Amino acid sequence: MLAVIGGSGLTQLANLDVTRREVVRTPFGEPSGALTFGRIGCQEVVFLARHGHGHTIPPHGVNYRANLWALARSAGAAGVISVASVGGIRADLPPGSLAVPHQIIDYTWGRNSTFHDNGDAPVVHVDFTEPYDRALRERLLAAAVEADLAVVDGGVYAATQGPRLETAAEIDRLQRDGADMVGMTGMPEASLARELEVPYAAICVVANWAAGRGDSVRAIRFDALEEVLQRAMVRVRGVIAHLCAKTR
Ligand code: HPA
Questions:
Q1: Among 83, 85, 216, which residue has the most ligand 1 atoms within 8 Å of its CB, making it the best to mutate?
Q2: How far, in Å, is the centroid of ligand 1 from the Cα of 163?
Q3: For a pocket test of ligand 1, which of 104, 182, 209, 226 has the largest count of ligand atoms closer than 8 A to its C-beta?
Q4: What DSSP letter does each residue of 101-141 carry, written as one string?
Q5: Less crowded by CB within 10 Å, the N or C end of the chain?
Q6: Rounded to 5°, angle at Cα 13 from 230 and 39
Q7: Residue 220 CA: which ligand 1 atom is closest?
Q8: Ligand 1 environment, Cβ below 6 A
Q9: In this predicted structure, what is the pLDDT of residue 22?
Q10: In this predicted structure, what is the pLDDT of residue 202?
Q11: Residue 64: its pLDDT value, please?
Q12: How far apart are CA 32 and CA 188, in angstroms?
């Protein structure tokens, strides 16, 4: 079974043939909402809306541990695809484009970011050199090629705390650090997946130019954002459908 975590603009998977919904409790609390089980083609899929069905949970308020535990342990998903909206920093990442990042820089703070913080248990360190699963990334990219949809291969995802957007100077700094796109939910989601040893990859949808870039030079305008996301999500669903079609 493949898990899909939908972010802003993707609170449900329209092409999912839903079989059941299940409210799951985990040792780390409640996930963002009920898990939706179904099928896309032959592939069993479990879907979770990261911000809740009514989009009420802010990035810093998401219970990432419960979400990952519910998908990987309770539902037993063998892989997790994250769909996440981002601001574009690099010149070839304008609003509406899709990217499969290959690296992460984490600027978040104060989030419950590990499963390994229980009392007397020995200290655990996990390798995170390559934060995204290579094979799952390749599958996403191959599915995009098959679907004839343009997806940028690679990029450094900067995870910021939010919920406020960044200043232009902060984006300058992120760019100097090597970041290509910026979002608020990529961490600790990715490292928690690694702790659970479940393959994890992300497909990012550029919702807007990051602060100080492109038409966000003076301010980030929200009016066009929803439409950009909705249009792009049609393509994201296409990529996911092709990925599922290839699974036997
Ligand atoms: N910054 C951070 N997160 C985001 C942005 C942004 O510009 N756009 C969408 N998610």
A1: 85
A2: 9
A3: 182
A4: --EEEE---SS---S---TTSPP-----SS-S-HHHHHHHH
A5: C
A6: 155
A7: 7
A8: 85-87, 160, 165-166, 182-184, 207-208, 210
A9: 97
A10: 98
A11: 98
A12: 15
Question: In angstroms, rounded to a whole number, what is the distance separating the alpha carbons of residues 193 and 90?
Answer: 27
Q: Which residue has the tokens 């995204």?
A: 132
Mutate to test the pocket of ligand 1, among 161, 165, 228 (most ligand atoms within 8 A of CB): 165
Closest residue by Cα to atom 7, ligand 1, is 87
CATH homologous superfamily, domain 2-246 = Nucleoside phosphorylase domain (3.40.50.1580)
How far apart are alpha carbons 93 and 129 in whole angstroms?
24
Residue 247: its pLDDT value, please?
A: 67
Taking the CA of residue 166 as reference, the ligand 1 atom at the shortest distance is 1
Q: What averages of pLDDT result for each successive group of 10 residues across the chain (248 residues)?
A: 92 89 97 96 95 93 98 98 97 97 98 90 92 98 97 98 97 98 98 98 97 94 89 95 83
Rounded to whole angstroms, how far apart are CA atoms 155 and 146?
Answer: 21
103: tokens are 């690296």
Residue 142 sits at the vertex; the CA angle it makes with 141 and 146, to the nearest 5 degrees, is 120
Express each pLDDT in 181-225 by its tens digit.
Answer: 999 999 999 999 999 999 999 999 999 999 999 999 999 988 889
Residue 59 alpha carbon, nearest atom of ligand 1: 3
Nearest to 176 by CA among 105, 128, 108: 105
